[in-house]
Design goal:
The structure holds two protein chains of two kinds.
Chain A lengths: L3 E4 L2 E4 L5 E7 L5 E8 L3 E10 L2 E4 L6 E3 L9 E3 L8 E8 L9 E2 L3 E5 L1
Parallel strand pairs in A: 2-11
Antiparallel strand pairs in A: 1-3, 3-8, 4-5, 4-9, 5-6, 7-8, 9-10, 9-11
Chain B lengths: L2 E3 L4 E5 L4 E3 L2 E3 L4 E8 L5 E7 L5 E3 L5 E5 L4 E6 L8 E9 L6 E2 L3 E6 L1
Parallel strand pairs in B: 2-12
Antiparallel strand pairs in B: 1-4, 3-9, 5-6, 5-10, 7-8, 8-9, 10-11, 10-12
Classes of the chains: A mainly beta, B mainly beta.
Chain lengths: 114, 113
Amino acid sequence: NAGVTQTPKFQVLKTGQSMTLQCAQDMNHEYMSWYRQDPGMGLRLIHYSVGAGITDQGEVPNGYNVSRSTTEDFPLRLLSAAPSQTSVYFCASRTWDGDTGELFFGEGSRLTVL
Amino acid sequence: AQSVAQPEDQVNVAEGNPLTVKCTYSVSGNPYLFWYVQYPNRGLQFLLKYITGDNLVKGSYGFEAEFNKSQTSFHLKKPSALVSDSALYFCAVRPFNDYKLSFGAGTTVTVRA
């Protein structure tokens, strides 16, 4: 199993550009989520999904869109990139079994917005 | 809303000495508590969790954590630290009836040889 796969690992954007961070998992996990990691702030939840066709907002959703058309994929879209979105982004998933499962994380995507 | 505090940005210990990383939390209702570790340029890896039952939880790589409901704490411990334990450690909490997992700011652990 590959686990949680994120692409790209690195990306540089100019202000105003749009892009999509890809996330795929092969563990048949119902729950998927996106976090951003900033120094001294830990991880903050952007959006999450509890199954195909179902998404909801986390703590810091502004400027980001998500969709969940399949169980495996959960892309994160930046509509118009801003320097404040410079961060490391992590996708994470978990099983829904018993609702006590731990999260499995991807390796991260480092985004710089100039 | 739930929150997590990790009062120490950095913890420095000598190899072979005990290691403690502190965590306190605030949540409505019963908490689910987790510890994760992050090595440089990697994603987070699960260490251990408290859901219910015994207050002392044992996890990966010789780590354990003690849940203290009265002090709302969930400190991570290791009896004898290794240089390879040097990493960034995150405590996380969510209520039993909510999907969202909230993380602390993280504590950088450095174990010197």
